[in-house]
Amino acid sequence: MTVLKSIRPYHAPAGGWGALKAMGTALAGQEVLMSGMATLARMNQPGGFDCPGCGWADPKHTSPFEYCENGGKAVAWEMTAKRCTPEFLAAHTVSELAAMGDFDLEMIGRLTHPVRYDAASDRYLPVSWDEAFATVARHLNALPDPDMAEFYTSGRASNEAAFLYQLFAREYGTNNFPDCSNMCHEATSVGLPPALGVGKGTVLLEDFEKADAILIFGQNPGTNSPRMMTDLRNASRRGATILSFNPFRERALERFQAPQNPVEMATLTSTPISSRLFQLKVGGDVAVIKGMMKWLVEADRAAARDHGGPVLDRDFIRGHTHGFEELAADLDATRWEDIERRSGLARADIEFAAQAYARAERAILVFGMGLTQHRHGALNVQQLANLALLRGNVGREGTGLCPVRGHSNVQGDRTVGITEVPNDALLDGLKARFGFEPPRRPGHNVVTALEAMVRGEVRVFIGLGGNFAAAIPDWETTQAALRRLDLTVHIATKLNRSHLVHGREALILPCLGRTEIDLQADGPQAVTVEDSMSMVHASTGHNAPASDQLMSEPAIIAGMARATLGARSTVDWEARIADYALIREDIEAVFPIFAGYNQRIREPGGFHLTSLARERIWATPTGKANFLVCEGLCEDPAIADPDVLWLTSVRSHDQYNTTLYSLSDRYRGVYGQRDVLFLDEAEMARRGLADGDRVDISTLATDGVERVVRGFRVVSHAFPEGSCAAYYPEVNPLVPLYAHDPDSFTPSYKAVPVRLTRSSVATGAL
Ligand SMILES: Nc1nc2c(c(=O)[nH]1)N[C@H]1C(S)=C(S)[C@@H](COP(=O)(O)OP(=O)(O)OC[C@H]3O[C@@H](n4cnc5c(=O)[nH]c(N)nc54)[C@H](O)[C@@H]3O)O[C@H]1N2
Ligand SMILES: Nc1nc2c(c(=O)[nH]1)N[C@H]1C(S)=C(S)[C@@H](COP(=O)(O)OP(=O)(O)OC[C@H]3O[C@@H](n4cnc5c(=O)[nH]c(N)nc54)[C@H](O)[C@@H]3O)O[C@H]1N2
Ligand SMILES: [Mo]
User: Could you tell me the distance, in angstroms and rounded to a whole number, from the CA of residue 408 to the centre of ligand 3?
Assistant: First the structure.
């Protein structure tokens, strides 16, 4: 279905009939309307499968309606009746496929057979599974150093698949585990431990029922975790204060009509979500948070002088924390005029937010990519932790930090060992269980893997899911490096860009999806996943596989491992594939927090992996929760150009990362196009531009390399000064590889300094 290009402001609330209609359209578009509805009834239910969409938690008492518009789309995309067959691939050269758009590639449908790249015909041709595994083995065993191979993971992989994957790579000899979370919540995983002793969130779903205030920084729940809207709506109805900090006025942060609520649906009413929306500048979060903390500290001093009630949780600060004096000194030294300039918000507005936060007995601080994907991502997260600690909002009912994870099992993959910097406990655990000596050298993350590829030090790339070539920054350089590899291997469900940006030899290995029956020697298998709130539960597919040639992810990994390691492996791979319960026993042996794994996943809703910070036990060097000072307001001194705009990249309502469900973005009023630049009218006027004009966007780089995307249509959107936005991944060519957080290596996807010029290209290429 072609949608005409248009820009039409969206006036309705988020959710509602529009959401139901969109879900129906997605299922019908994939020709699975009836079977899709039946499948959705099993989603997030006991004995059913875990939604392959986002990582938001499932409520304990499930209603028969535990899915959302975008979960529905994710299922429709996996269940599609369309197929990418060997006949289709034989009929198209890779160069022809590469000329197609990402949306059209995905629309070809599910991959049905393993294929290998044939350079002579420039086509992907069928290959047997054994031959495919032998190819992987030949390349890996030919490398003089195992660190010349990269083992990428995307966060949809189950715990069982991820554990086997790291087992294979470590027995082979490397810790090179670039992972999608390196581009996502790594700033959380790296930023939080020095503050709280844990790198994960500290809330459970039931805390949302008790919080008096919920502050949402840089996260767009209506699109990226729509099931969270139910929790926000309930909180709003209870009278909780919801404050949002975002350069965009995201519709779902304003008003929501619950598709599960018959009254709102029948009467076309909706629930207001945010009490206030603070439109801050791109990258202005540290300034806002420091401003709020400055007010809190000063108000607390004033209260002490006037014998009023405390504003800070002084007992908690005294008994549980370290570094308060240094934080207060830093806040005293921070001037309001700098805070206002850097945040784009008036002092009165920041004080309003601080007062609302101070009035709440219990508060939850939610955050997403708007906070993590910055050069100061870890510092952002740490300042938010400071804000929580000042009022004792960690480790108490109805309070906590809530990083909203992306992929449905990105958190679980890290828990079961996908990490390039393994600790001794993990390595010793592997050695004790399996008897081989795992490598102790740190491996590569996404950025260091790409740097090594650019230097020519990598020969083989294996991707467990995902779309690496499209998700990464700096396409011109990084995609060229991918093309120079000896072998690229992708375990995937659908054809995507990464399969076309391939090495000299290439394999696409098609796997089962979450909704499909995984039948192995000992019977049908379930897998397990961990959600954003550290709940671990089982997922069982019930649909017939898209093709009888598909293998499960664990089976593909075991196939590669057996072919590569042969007799030198100490692992009985076959037994583990026959019965995944054995893999869970391995996980339990290596990670004691999984004690009783196989029994506990039988509990409805699964089990919780304990978080020490939730119990106010601080696994930090000081034994306390630490206030961590960040100097200044995280401004980039290298960029002094007065014309600079800071470009952020966001997801549309109709995409799942690099997977496009359509070219439209309903809530932001964009239809049939993605090559748009959201720009404020004042910034347009300053540049002599009008709504509808086309511009080229180029990066103000410090390495002299030209990075430009052309022909983007200007769309008027109210932003604070100096901020603008476009869609991910269309602007990834603009993000320099060097522009990453020095602590967490998270690329600065949410703040690229750019300049605009009127475009000579009449229409966008998209
Ligand atoms: N339907 C759907 N669901 C998804 C995904 C998807 O693509 N589609 N992706 C999944 C994944 S992997 C992830 S990580 C999550 C992502 O979910 P989110 O974290 O919501 O991701 P984004 O849409 O990238 O950006 C979040 C918000 O940050 C705001 N923002 C941009 N720059 C700044 C800034 O400097 N400061 C602040 N405060 N805000 C800023 C944007 O306007 C946007 O509203 O969702 C997951 N769920
Ligand atoms: N500019 C910019 N860049 C970004 C971001 C941003 O906000 N802005 N966000 C970053 C973030 S948060 C993330 S997480 C990354 C995402 O990076 P990735 O996780 O690498 O990308 P996805 O688009 O989620 O991967 C989609 C592909 O996964 C495959 N797939 C789907 N289901 C399955 C399955 O069940 N098994 C297997 N094996 N494969 C499957 C399909 O082939 C599909 O094409 O992108 C990052 N890049
Ligand atoms: Mo993500």
Answer: 9
